[in-house]
Amino acid sequence: MGPLAGTLGRVAAIAATSTRRTLRRPLNLLWLLLVPLFFGVLVAGLFVRSDDVPVLAVVVEDRGPWVGPLLQGLEVTPMTLRRLDREEAVARLHQGRERVVLWVPPGFSQSVAAGRPRVELWYGPRQEPGAEAARIRAVAAGLVTGTPAGPLPVEAVAPRPSVRPEDYELLRAVFGFYAMFALVTLITHGAALHHERSLGTLPRSLLAGATYGEVVAGHAVALFLIGALQAAAMLGATALLGAPWLAAGVPALALAVAASLVAACGVALAVAGFTQTPRQITAAGILVGTIAAMLGGAFWPLDVVPATLQEVARLSPVYWALDALREAFVFGGPGAPQLPAVAVLLLFGLVAGTAGVAGLRRWAP
């Protein structure tokens, strides 16, 4: 047996022992599988978009006769209009309090009379055109032709038509909660190293021939396996309830899950490396996981928070996990579109894991 095979064998043995020890405890199974599954299925429905009438902010700077018909036509489509002045509209866009604003410029009525109605849509940071553009275009065209648009059954079609927008909202909500539970679970189970130190099994493992690096690698692999098991249970159960996890293909889903787990494992090792007791690591797991989920958009879409918090969200691995999911299911599928988010998640895992290994090294004899 070569040195590499021996190293891999010892890492696998440590990973299998740690994973088996975790799964033997009923309380661990409750936290690993049942609690995430319950919250994932229950809360997912809360984030699916409803059929409420959309609200559109409007800045009107034209006093001509065609402004009234335009606004009335939009309300009939139906839409709820919120009148703002220019300064307030721009401020709300930059603060993230408005996604889009319709600007009716001076000279709009003359442009309608000339047969070329002109309005503008102002979008907030990283916002994209939605159903409002189709409604405004139809109403403006009706002003020229004399045919009222009336109620419009506007259907939002994603760039990847195999996933409906409402389906993606379901996937985003479930995956966001999975990312949170993966962080909490893996950080909490990073306490296994603390338990081994307190029980004296860590020094015995080192004395039995396993190197310090092999022990840490074995526990890191165990964390990854536990997270993968949690993902299989949570995503599998919601798939049975109708979540189209395979709509973008197995590689797209696997890439998002694997990259998220690498980041979570790295964060777990970092927390383990800079805490002293299992109680500290448990408290840190709940705190870090919850904050990362709140910042990253697991609990609510980021377009409802101020623009400053939308930028701060990039510091959370949950944000990049959801971005990897979005790129796969809404835009390009597996591969290049996911690479930026996947690269950031791998960097999270590498940097945090390296810091954790440095912190854990103080245990090495």
Automatic annotation (TrEMBL):
Membrane topology, as annotated: Multi-pass membrane protein
Chief site of localization: membrane
Domain (ABC transmembrane type-2): residue spans on this chain: 133-363
Keywords: Membrane, Transmembrane, Transmembrane helix
Parts of the chain that traverse the membrane: 29-48, 170-194, 215-241, 253-274, 281-300, 339-360
Protein location: Membrane
Record protein name field: ABC transporter permease
Native source species: Thermaerobacter composti
Lineage: Bacteria, Bacillati, Bacillota, Clostridia, Eubacteriales
